[in-house]
Design brief:
- By secondary structure, the chain is α/β, with parallel strands linked by helices.
- Helix content is 48%, strand content 14%.
- It contains nine helices and nine strands.
- Strand 4, helix 6 and strand 5 form a beta-alpha-beta unit.
Length: 290
């Protein structure tokens, strides 16, 4: 009888210990899961600060948009790159929720979908952009509309203009012979201007450079992406603010580097070239005076 009681107590103790261990395991698992979720939640603002999208990940991003509060994207997405492979409908949806973007690369091909193009540009016009990279025809559509009602006009500091292989559409204004990028006088805070000429267009002339420099009074550096094959950075003889830099081998990685403030990005290298050239000129003048 005693042995049966001892056996029962032993079994009960074994069961209790196993249940306790199991409960402790479940509790620790829940804590670990909760802790992981909390860490992921805390990381999300950093994960979504810089968003680069193509044909594959744009639909995935749209899925995230549908499963999370729109305010999250409006608050945390500050740098957004919509590459040429993003579908126009996806671009419109993404721009509709990412209302807090300060740095936008808009390279979407809207030639086959003018309706989506109009919607996208109307959304861009309301963004408080500090930096914009886009094709020349999109820039012209934006700047030609009522610029006084556009949030980005008074804030833009960096403008990167891409000259596509196609010219302006019928009935649209194109770059004039005098100014490659017109209406720069409407951007009072513009300090950085980048030009990505197409091989189908003639080189930027001295008259073009002078016109842009005269129009953009706050300009610090004007970068011309050079496809001549010379292969090295150099300062123009026209003006020390004009810098020729070889076209980057990967434009998306270059844009990401600019968003991160990478010291090897085009803007940073151009600023360094301008400063060094100015220092060298001051040294030359000092030697001549002495």
């Amino acid at each position: 009888m005693l042995s049966s009681s001892i056996l029962g107590l032993a079994c009960a103790s074994y069961w209790y210990q196993n249940e306790l261990a199991h409960g402790l395991f479940i509790h620790l698992s829940n804590l670990l899961y909760t802790n992981t979720l909390m860490r992921l939640y805390r990381l999300q603002p950093y994960i979504f600060d810089i968003v680069v999208l193509g044909s594959t990940d744009a639909p995935l991003f749209r899925r995230s948009v549908n499963s999370m509060p729109a305010q999250f994207f409006a608050t945390h997405v500050k740098n957004l790159c919509l590459s040429v492979s993003v579908e126009p409908e996806d671009a419109t949806t993404i721009l509709r929720v990412c209302r807090g973007v300060k740095n936008l690369a808009f390279w979407v091909d809207h030639l086959a979908n003018p309706s989506a193009r109009s919607h996208s540009l109307s959304l861009i016009a309301t963004l408080h952009l500090h930096r914009l990279s886009t094709e020349i025809t999109y820039y012209l559509d934006l700047i030609r509309s009522d610029s006084q009602q556009q949030a980005w006009v008074q804030r833009l500091t960096h403008l990167d203009v891409i000259f596509g292989t196609h010219g302006p559409e019928d009935g649209q204004e194109g770059p004039s012979p005098q100014t490659v990028v017109p209406h720069l006088d409407q951007l009072p805070r513009l300090t950085h201007l980048g030009l990505r000429p197409s091989w189908t267009r003639p080189p930027v002339s001295k008259a073009d450079l002078r016109a842009m420099l005269d129009a953009a009074l706050s300009l610090v550096v004007l970068v011309i992406y050079d496809e001549s094959g010379i292969g090295h950075e150099r300062v123009s003889s026209v003006d020390r603010r004009v810098v020729y830099i070889p076209y980057p081998p990967n434009v998306i990685l270059e844009w990401e580097g600019q968003a991160h403030g990478d010291e090897m990005s085009v803007w940073t290298k151009a600023e360094g070239l301008v400063r060094r050239h100015a220092a060298e000129q001051r040294g030359v003048y000092f030697c001549q005076d002495s």
